[in-house]
Design brief:
CATH superfamily of the largest domain: Argininosuccinate synthetase, chain A, domain 2
Number of strands: 14
Strand order of the largest sheet: 3-2-1-4-5
Shape: elongated
Distance between the termini: 70 Å
Number of domains: 3
């Protein structure tokens, strides 16, 4: 059901089949101005000619926004500091990109005095939730149009037929075997030939990584520097966030690091098989945890880990701008203040092996940890400590 009162729409636009058809369909259905917006989060998509294509299909203008720095600095690094993993495996490259994209879309809608925003997410996936929760959190009265939930088309074949009938130039074909999402953090693969959870992903789908068996035959040592939990250098060279993550993606890909194949539980309730490549952040997670092991108090780490499931679910479900997430981010940032130092890693055939860690804030004291004689720790103190902790166990056995 279309709202004929809408006068201007901002459409999240990529120039692909779905959003090209959407642009024409929105103009046809709402008879209003449509402004297109394309976010660059490192997907490597060809931007040349996109402005002309959008205007030729009916857009009044096209915004192309470079969000790479903001995406890595404010979203990816936050997830690294939290050691965030959804269902213990997924590093959430798609989940983290959606709020930064939707946030800028709302900013453009305000600038353009638009009534509504539109996105190309399907009615079955998580992305519709992530986009729209962000929209409503930042602009409560915004009207949201989700064509995949409203229009008459059932699939790609219908879209291709519509594009041909209306002279919309698209390069899609009906036999694409799977769908992908790429950004600076990862590449994801879903659908088509991957819908059988028993089938091994074909080697030719991977874009960022070699297979471990075909990766570099010799180990590589790598040193990563952190400041307050955020990565700042590789092998002593200071780098900005985009450069650093790009560098680690390249190195990790050569060593076959960062492939994940899982069946995950979508927020909307169904299970979905996803295959992911996240080489750079896989390296960073190992390094970050190693540095935390010498800089953070034991109970602080346990408190942070107890938040881990909730933190990851909030990201995956789309609650980046929720009040509880604001509080968790503040806690994570406070916890990460002492996490400064360097970690040395060995990369080899899909493995990230920690071989050294150091920090000016280290809580590790060799004088106490040593098995040799020391004057700091009295082993006899352990007897009372053990008996006190054993008291409830002894009483239970006696009863």
């Amino acid at each position: 059901m279309t709202d004929k009162g809408i006068k201007k729409i901002v459409l999240a636009y990529s120039g692909g089949l779905d959003t090209s058809v959407m642009l024409h369909w929105l103009k046809e259905q709402y008879q209003c101005e449509v402004v297109c917006y394309c976010a660059d989060v490192g997907q490597g998509a060809e931007m040349d000619g996109l402005d002309e294509k959008a205007k030729a299909t009916g857009a009044s203008k096209l915004y192309i926004e470079d969000l790479r720095e903001e995406f890595v600095r404010d979203y990816v690094w936050t997830a690294v500091k939290a050691n965030a993993l959804y269902e213990g495996v997924y590093l959430m490259g798609t989940s983290l990109a959606r709020p930064v994209i939707a946030k800028r879309q709302i900013e453009i809608a305000r600038r353009e005095n638009a009534d509504a925003v539109a996105h190309g997410s399907t009615g079955k996936g998580n992305d519709q939730v992530r986009f729209e929760l962000t929209y409503y959190a930042l602009q409560p009265d915004i009207k949201v149009i989700a064509p995949w939930r409203d229009w008459e088309f059932k699939g790609r074949t219908d879209l291709i037929a519509y594009a041909e009938a209306h002279g919309i130039p698209v390069s899609a074909t009906i036999d694409k075997p799977y769908s992908t999402d790429r950004n600076l953090m990862h590449v994801s693969y879903e659908g088509g030939i991957l819908e059988d959870p028993w089938a091994e992903p074909p080697e030719n789908i991977f874009q960022l990584t070699r297979s471990p068996e075909n990766s570099r035959g010799e180990a590589q040592y790598l040193e990563i520097g952190f400041a307050h939990g955020e990565p700042v250098s590789v092998d002593g060279e200071q780098m900005d966030p985009v450069m650093l993550l790009s560098k680690l993606n390249e190195i990790g890909g050569e060593h076959g690091i960062g492939r994940v194949d899982l069946v995950e539980n979508r927020f909307v309730g169904m299970k979905s098989r996803g295959v992911y490549e996240t080489p750079g952040v896989t390296i960073l997670q190992s390094a970050h945890r190693a540095l935390e092991s010498i800089t953070l108090d034991r109970e602080v780490v346990r408190l942070r880990d107890s938040l881990g499931v909730k933190f990851a679910e909030s990201v995956y479900y789309g609650f980046w701008f929720a009040p509880e997430f604001d509080l968790m981010r503040l806690m994570i940032d406070e916890m990460q203040k002492p996490v400064t130092g360097d970690v040395r890693l060995k990369l080899y055939r899909g493995n990230v092996i920690v071989v050294g860690r150091r920090s000016p804030n280290s809580l590790y004291d060799e004088r106490i940890a040593t098995f040799e004689a020391d004057t700091v720790y009295n082993p006899r103190d352990a007897e009372g400590f053990i008996k006190l902790n054993a008291l409830r166990l002894r009483l239970r056995r006696q009863v």
